[in-house]
Amino acid sequence: MSAPAALRAPGLALLAGIFAITAAWGFQIIGGYLPCKLCLEERLFYYVGLPILLVGILLSKRMPRLARLLYFVGGAIFLGGSVLAGYHTGAEWKLWEGPSDCGGAPTVVNSAADLMAAVKGTRLVSCSEATISLFGLSFAGWDTLSMLFIGLMSWRGIFARRDALI
């Protein structure tokens, strides 16, 4: 027996989001890829949106109206995130300039020695240059598509038939 329509799309959105954020962390931790400032900001949408989708899925049978509201909010979060990821992608494609303050993670400096160590050990990561391309798209490009998909699948759960929730 297949899952009710009200759970399929949001469930797929949740799985896609978990895959995307896990892949981002995997490339960073295992692959040594350093994210830029915009990459880190884009992750915030996953950290906020995925728990909202999960709660919506868990409440879908007992409180379908609240679940639909959570699908709406989660979808809006991811669609908003796709705008930031799209901006990031456009900056990489040189369609417009990226942020001027994009370059590296903040470092705590307590002395001149700490400052010199930070300068020597810092690799700047530009928001306007794609460091890796997979199948013709940068991480920002994939993130744009991922967040669009997650947002639309979340919203698809809003319009599932009520009898599919029971």
Low-confidence stretches: none
Alpha carbon gap, first and last residue: 14 Å
What is the global morphology?
elongated
Number of domains: 1
- In round numbers, the mean pLDDT is 83
Q: How are the strands ordered across the major sheet?
A: 1-2
Percent range for β-strand residues: under 5%
Q: Please provide the count of β strands.
A: 2
The number of helical elements comes to 5
Task: Find the structural class using helix and strand composition.
Answer: mainly alpha
Please trace the helix and strand order, writing H or E for each element: HHHHEEH
Q: What integer value in Å does the Rg equal?
A: 19 Å
Major sheet description:
2 strands, antiparallel
Q: In words, what does this structure look like?
A:
The mean pLDDT is 83. This protein has helices at 5-29, 37-59, 64-92, 112-121, 139-156; strands spanning 133-134, 137-138. The longest helix is centred in the middle third of the chain and has 29 residues, at 64-92. The protein is elongated. The protein is 63% helix and 2% strand. With 166 residues, the chain is mainly α.
